[in-house]
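Hello again, I could really use a second opinion on something today. I've been staring at a protein lately and its backbone has me curious. You're getting the sequence in one-letter code plus the fold written as tokens. I'd be grateful if you could look everything over and explain what you see. No rush at all, and the record is pasted right below:
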Amino acid sequence: MHEPRLVKDYKQHEMLRKSFDELAVKTFGISFEAWYQHGFWNDRYIPYSFAIGDQVIANVSVNLLDIMIDGENRSAIQIGTVMTHEDYRGQGLSRRLMTNVLEDFENQYDVMYLFANDAVLDYYPKFGFEAVEEEQCWMDYSPSRKEPAAIRKLNVHDPDDLQFINHFVSIRMPVSKRFGTIHTQGIFMFYALNIFSDDMYYLADEDVICVYKQENGHMEIYDLVHIREVNTHSILAKIAGIDTEKVTFYYTPDDPSLELKRIRCENGLFVRTNGRVQYPVHVKHPVTSIA
């Protein structure tokens, strides 16, 4: 059997990239190819893979970003797309890839983190990661008279709308100063194409892109993409339905006027820090920048 070779950051190598994509489809049911073809796979997403020939058999990806904690920027690395071809599992390939990542980025980050599934919760502590519990915010909501609004549903299949979204995200503010992410344009655009393609709306008066769903009196807000400070109450008054009774936020709102309630959520978050930064408690990582 051929010894697998380590390959990194090979998005321009068509055979390797397509093999990586095939493994991602087989493992997670997601494809990266459209994301790449649209130009959203940027230099902040770096796959570390083992390959035999041009076949990718295992992968651990690095996402370079910053996180904002209480108004201060911290350098961060988010690990994602951890996968191994079924024919090569049990050979320690993921462990070797994680070791390579840790060696390459030693002392280059304040926080390194990842979201793990239930099957590997005892795996990442071996690399110095600690489990961190998240809290999600929600609130009761009683709509008043619905305010008129210029709301336009965005169509990611329209090149103009897709470019508009991409540009808007490139100049956005963090969704929260309490805990937000920065330089995550590429990850957001993956969600725009694959996860929330039917849930994106532009509010012209507020100059904000709202990513949300509402059904059976429950509104779920996944992101508010804005380039200046916004008022959440004003946005809710425009997008909430007359039957909305509950609003759940998939990030950590920092608007002190919101009467928020919190619920613990176990998302398999594991964190490793440089010892100088403390990962915050009582926060929810923005869902549109989870790799």
Observations:
- Residues 14-28 form the longest helix (15 residues).
- The chain has six helices and 15 strands.
